[in-house]
């Protein structure tokens, strides 16, 4: 006979992990998921391959990969670290591998394997699976937690309730912000929430000519009009689409922007390994070797094919000028273009395209040691519904697993 009734709201990675930790011989655990299946968003992760964690140590994640409320995560990440995630999934039969950028994926390259392993383990552990259950509100009686109320007004009794309802992005996956309403009902403050890890919209027409171009190993700097210092500066991968930038660099840079978006400019360094002087010297050498080749045909060693006509046009150097006639001033201007290709920001993508919600239930009134509300005894939070938010690289799923684990632990 179970001594404690535990309800988990939300069957994403945080909720499933919370349910698994909460289930002991002494507890009855029910997981309520409004969709007909679990982990709808989890299936989309990592382009369907699921970048489920990283090989970062907890301290590194806190120091360099979480950009909101990072210190709050100490207990969670040290209680259940990336190494624990690796071991945990191995034990469920999911082999993992490390890829570039210390990103960790299942060897199968299938996010469904990760999702299915969690669901199977929940079934095996005796967790009561309630799909198609939409929680409307918390069941509170004079400030005491009694359980939850479904959208059909049915009440479900619980001594402990873990809210793991996710954020507000990709709402068709089920994460529609209900968790914030539940938290607000209990008196919690909500920070933001805003869209993050979202494509950046730009004004520049030339992007239409190179739509789909993936640039690897370039540098992106984000500036606001009132600051000469970059707000974000990183080397990595960028995808240029029609009047939009996406890929890891753009998604991360979006985390440093707020309205009005037309206050921002993005500068791309297409040759980050060379200084300005080195690039000018290289251009001089290459153009000399090209002899009387047309300028427009002399950039093959420097740029991907799609970008060459764009740079030729932006350079204002006549496309049919002979390479060996390009003078020092023109070379300097061209080098400047390659080192600082500037784009004007007009906005960010929509809620349907943002990878993550920045902000959420404020950590001020949550105990970091067990993720329990300081206002309502027995009420816990886990996953993206909470304020902490990280960059790409498997850290957000790791945070979902770590906070799910900690919220589920009996203390
Ligand atoms: C396209 C995309 C790709 C991504 N790729 C990665 C990646 O590779 N690596 C990474 O680390 N992160 C990635 N993320 C982020 C990651 O998916 C999220 O951080 C993570 O899913 C959050 O887990 P969660 O359990 O907190 O919330 P969610 O996964 O959003 O799950 C919340 C669940 O709660 C349910 N729910 C909501 N309200 C209710 C209610 N009232 N009643 C019952 N159920 C409810 C929802 O239906 C949903 O199933 C990606 C996100 C997107 C959108």
Structure write-up:
This protein has 12 helices and 23 strands. It has helices at residues 13-22, 40-44, 58-65, 74-79, 82-91, 111-125, 178-185, 248-254, 276-290, 307-315, 328-339, 395-408; strands at residues 4-9, 27-33, 53-54, 66-68, 96-99, 103-106, 128-131, 135-141, 144-150, 155-157, 160-163, 190-196, 200-202, 213-224, 232-241, 244-246, 264-269, 341-348, 356-361, 366-367, 372-373, 379-381, 389-390. The strands form 7 sheets. The protein has a 6-stranded antiparallel barrel. The chain is elongated and about 90 Å long. The model has no long low-confidence stretch (mean pLDDT 96). Bound molecules: flavin-adenine dinucleotide. Residues 9-15, 32-35, 40-42, 44-46, 50-51, 133-135, 164-166, 169-170, 174-175, 178, 355-356, 383-384, 394-397, 400 line the site of flavin-adenine dinucleotide.
Question: What about the largest sheet?
Answer: 6 strands, antiparallel, barrel
Radius of gyration: 25 Å
The CATH class assignment of the largest domain is: Alpha Beta
Percent helix? 25-40%
- Unreliable spans: none
What would you say the CATH architecture of the largest domain is? 3-Layer(bba) Sandwich
The average pLDDT is 96
Strand content: 25-35%
Give every kind of bound small molecule, once each: flavin-adenine dinucleotide
């Amino acid at each position: 006979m179970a001594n404690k009734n535990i309800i988990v709201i939300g069957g994403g990675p945080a909720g499933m992990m919370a349910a698994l930790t909460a289930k002991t011989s002494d507890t009855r655990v029910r997981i309520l998921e409004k969709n007909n299946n679990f982990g709808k968003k989890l299936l989309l992760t990592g382009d369907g391959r699921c970048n489920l964690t990283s090989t970062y140590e907890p301290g590194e994640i806190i120091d360099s990969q979480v950009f909101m409320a990072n210190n709050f995560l100490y207990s969670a990440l040290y209680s259940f670290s990336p190494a624990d995630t690796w071991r945990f999934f191995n034990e469920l039969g999911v082999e993992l591998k490390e890829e570039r950028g210390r990103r960790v994926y299942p060897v199968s390259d299938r996010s469904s394997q990760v999702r299915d392993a969690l669901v199977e383990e929940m079934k095996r552990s005796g967790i009561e699976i309630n799909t198609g259950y939409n929680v409307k509100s918390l069941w509170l009686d004079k400030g005491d937690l009694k359980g939850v109320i479904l959208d059909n007004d049915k009440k479900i009794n619980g001594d402990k309730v873990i809210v793991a309802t996710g954020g507000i992005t990709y709402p068709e996956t089920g994460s529609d912000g209900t968790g914030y309403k539940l938290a607000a009902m209990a008196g919690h403050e909500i920070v933001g929430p805003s869209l993050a890890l979202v494509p950046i919209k730009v004004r520049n027409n030339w992007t239409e000519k190179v739509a789909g171009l993936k640039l690897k190993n370039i540098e992106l700097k984000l500036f606001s009009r009132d600051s000469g210092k970059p707000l974000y500066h990183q080397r990595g991968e960028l995808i240029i689409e029609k009047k939009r930038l996406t890929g890891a660099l753009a998604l991360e840079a979006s985390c440093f922007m707020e309205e009005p978006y037309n206050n921002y400019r993005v500068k791309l360094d297409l040759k980050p390994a060379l200084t300005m002087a080195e690039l000018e010297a290289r251009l001089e050498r290459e153009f000399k070797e090209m002899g009387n080749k047309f300028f427009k045909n002399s950039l093959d060693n420097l740029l991907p094919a799609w970008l060459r006509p764009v740079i030729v046009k932006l350079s204002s150097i006549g496309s049919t000028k002979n390479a060996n006639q390009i003078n020092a001033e023109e070379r300097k201007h061209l080098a400047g273009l390659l080192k600082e290709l500037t784009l004007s920001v007009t906005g960010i993508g929509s809620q349907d395209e943002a990878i993550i919600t920045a902000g959420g239930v404020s950590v001020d009134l949550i105990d970091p040691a067990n993720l329990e509300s300081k206002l309502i005894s027995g009420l816990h939070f886990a996953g993206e519904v909470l304020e902490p938010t990280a960059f790409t690289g498997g850290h957000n799923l790791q945070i979902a697993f770590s906070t799910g684990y900690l919220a589920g632990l009996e203390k």
